[in-house]
Fold:
Amino acid sequence: MNRDHILEAAAQIFRQKGFHLASMQDIAEAVNLQKASLYHHVSSKQEILLALLDQALDLLTERLLLVIQQDLPADEKLRAAVRCYLEALAEHSDLASVMILEYRSLDPENLARHVPRRDHFERMWRDLVKEGTNSGKFCMTDSTMAARTLLGVMNWTITWYRPTGPLTMGQIADQITSLFLNGLLCRP
Structure:
């Protein structure tokens, strides 16, 4: 048994039960350990939650960085970033669910450690919007509002997306990007 297996099991349990209803006993049973043995690997549920949040942000930041470093026009880069992000959420749905829904369960000390990392990730999206504005592709003047709106739309997909549904995550990403870039209004 290693820490990665424990974190993977914990992410599943946190997604199913929520952080507060999940117990260390649940996690220990999921990885076939005695509860006391689990504490040889982790010290608390808070430590597990923070580790999961770090793992999620590391994964998403790494993938987003690969996209934003590409030499593409801003609209194409945004389309690729949305697709990359949504596909990562679908591929790591337990981890994504914990990142999006359970961060509020962090105690104040761990929340203070998490927030700068989360803010850095959001800043990457704001910078992508600013790049589009600076290049003349986008006309959004408030990059913070644009980034938060887009992240909110994308994050909420974890509540309704089903791999067996009528659309792939890539198709959903394309529709979200088109809606975001073009809006609902018909253009003459």
Remarks:
- The first helix runs from residue 3 to 17.
- DSSP finds nine helices and no strands in the chain.
- The chain has one domain: 48-182.
- Residues 9 and 30 are 6 Å apart (CA to CA).
